[in-house]
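Q: Hi! First time doing this. I have a protein sequence and I read that you can turn it into a structure. Is that right? Here it is:
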Amino acid sequence: MQVLTRPPSGWPALVLNADFRPLSYYPLSLWCWEDVVKAVWQDRVDIVSTYDKVVRSPSMEFRLPSVVSLKAFVPQDRSPAFTRFNLFLRDQFTCQYCGLNGGDMTFDHVTPRSRGGRTTWDNIVTACAPCNLRKGGRTPAEAQMPPRREPRRPTAHQLQALGRRFPPHYLHESWLDYLYWDIELEP
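A: Yes, that's right. Below is the predicted 3D structure, encoded as structure tokens:
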């Protein structure tokens, strides 16, 4: 991971909840500068840190924020949405049958839909395409392919913790005080 002293392309701002924690780690809660300026004018956020970049209108100058915090706290304890991305994050982008990490991942119904299996947290696992094809419409027992972990509904906190394992390729130095990764500064 690279720590940038110059602003990243597009001048994004790190968005923190009212308790000064990021709204999400993976993907990192970033807003484009236009949305941040709009939120500042609507008095929805406080500016915590700024870039040296100034935008101008005919009547004023404004330094672009690099870190903002929401004025109203957004509860993070709600159940996470069942999405493809959240499922892959729960399973750490790893096939639950063979352990392959990354690549062409799909999701697999543990109890096949043809046998009444539903599309829920408790019945879906991440699978690589070859394992998904090999298992087919059988149960894991019939295919002799037990999942490495039993599928279950994750909490928002569990997904946040898992997201910290996948830091972005870059971070701006003004964001470091608000993010909790083991970061090695590059020369």
